[in-house]
Please model this.
Amino acid sequence: MGRVIAIANQKGGVGKTTTAINLAACLAVAGSQVLLIDADPQANTTSGLGLRGQHQRTLYHALAMSESLDRVEIASGLDGLSLIPSERNLAGAEIELVDIERREYRLREILENHRDRFDFVLIDCPPSLGLLTLNALTAADSVLVPIQCEYFALEGVSELWDTLIRIRRSLNPTLAVEGFLLTMFDERTNLSNQVIGRLARFSRIASLRNFHTPQRSPRRGSEPWTADNPLRSEVPWIGKLRESRQGGTRQ
Ligand SMILES: Nc1ncnc2c1ncn2[C@@H]1O[C@H](COP(=O)(O)OP(=O)(O)O)[C@@H](O)[C@H]1O
Ligand SMILES: [Mg+2]
Model:
């Protein structure tokens, strides 16, 4: 049964989508069967794979209209990698699901049979702690938290942490934490090193592991990936994730 990993942080611009695309693509190239779910109404994962407008149905249809995932899933063009695309309407699902019983379990339930075909299911979450993110965290076996090495990096971490604890108490008691993934790290700045220091203290308290990405902040004109070539950047910690496939860090 596929391992479901949510990539979540309620802050925008921290590298969730970039991580989701690169990790999914690298796992597929390494021979895994991977399903990437775009759970953000901004649909950056969908457009990042060059698939905006290439679909008739999206995650919205599966969540709000009970469409089977088989009918929503599309091929990415890369062997082993499939996508559940997103669209702006997905924002409406947060409102439409409000009155539905077990609304936080929708994604978990529709993935139940579908995940068997995959080694990994990665969910790119929106930049909020709303119902879509709750659905992702309830469906997931584990969560990977990208954190940008910048001044306010840790401001949202305790809020996210409280949410994870609440989810484990109620919706998903076995949710594990893969770790924090430091993005846009630049060893030339004190700031990046300060963020690492503060996060290391937090992680020791929470007994978490930190993945460290040596990717530097992009210089002008050197984005870490481009829409037509999501494989351009490396994800060097992929080996660690594969090792952790049998179980993430659990407290
Ligand atoms: N590891 C990284 N190294 C350098 N730049 C990155 C990295 N991850 C993301 N970026 C850049 O940061 C910006 C925001 O990334 P994105 O993945 O869209 O964040 P989010 O999905 O959290 O909103 C993009 O311009 C992206 O190219
Ligand atoms: Mg995003």
In short: Residues 16-17, 40, 44 surround magnesium ion (ligand 2) (CB under 6 Å). Strands lie at 3-7, 34-38, 74-75, 81-84, 120-124, 142-148, 176-183, 210-212. Residues 3-246 form a domain with the Rossmann fold fold (CATH 3.40.50.300).
